[in-house]
Specification:
Length: about 300
Amino acid sequence: AVVSTQSTGSSIREVAKTTGIIKVVPPEGWSPPFSVDIGKFLFTPRVQKLNELEAKSRCHFQFMEGLAKFWHLQGVDVKIPSVEYKPLDMYALHKVVQDFGGYEKCCSGKKWSAVCKKLKFKDRSPANTIKQHYEKIVHPYIVFRRVHCGENLGSDEKNITVELIKEKMEKTEYKHNSADDKRELLYENLFCKVCKSGDRDDAMLLCDECDEPYHIYCLNPPLEKIPSGEWRCPVCLAKEIDNRQFGFEQAKKEYTLAQFGQMADNFKSRYFKMQASEVPIDRVEEEFWRLVCCVDEDVAVEY
């Protein structure tokens, strides 16, 4: 129902009772003054990455952020490998491996060719390469999450990890990257938090956050060598990985309403390569939903 504002309150109420919804139409020529001075009112907009609005994209980013932190805070520089001339999507690889029952079942059931097929590689030949990339980059992170971040750890995977540690302790000789003679004095009275032993100071690490000592072969998963950069112990690493910042980031610049409108028009013109006033609304909406579902394009908007 459409009701004129010249009607009384009682008549509007009576109409609403019968229809459930009303539209109030102001008198012709009604133009109240704008309550905000568009030239003086200042505000700082928020910034939103469009592809973080969609749940699947957000899960992808959170996984990749955790994976990057895991290796960076252990002083390891990991580069995303390419397969068939394209960067390997580590999150997609992780999801497919989980769909097949996890790393151990993929190995015991010889599922790596099927993993390649599900990842839509044209050739099944990179199966061994995919397995190696998973073992080197993703698998240690998954084991770490299960052991140190409260996630369930399957008995088979735990036993294999323990065997790896024992093998490292018995067979491997470790070399530290630093030739500093003061190292012996520094590590003389330190005892590993895991095995409680002070042996093998050449394989001992000190956390750059809490200064607790660990043998690199006592870590779960173990490290193959002393990292060259900064290193965080499992406790500090778990805290850092789980320390996600939720909410919206603030923009760096303040705007008046007039400046913000001009900035928005300039962005629209550059993005669509036409005058802002000529961009169809349907085109804007179509592009918005495409960007929401797109992991590869990192477009942010201020609002």
